[in-house]
Amino acid sequence: MTAADASSDAPEYKPRGRECYRCTRDVAPQFLFRVTVESPAPLSETYADGVRYCCEDCAAAMNLSDFSRRMKRHAGHGDEVPDG
């Protein structure tokens, strides 16, 4: 998960608008989170990967910022990400 304006320059990673997919509010791109969902290998033939854009408030409501913080803290250390 990254801020939409800090993501790749590739067109598929740019926000299609300035709208949060959960609350449909208009939000400036620098305040949108890019949420990428990848299907697990056994389900990849049935389900496609997806990218959506989410505002700060909805990301906080889904606790995504805390999850992202934990992932970054444990990245590069070879640690497993804690559950809670």
Automatic annotation (TrEMBL):
Q: What is this protein called?
A: Small CPxCG-related zinc finger protein
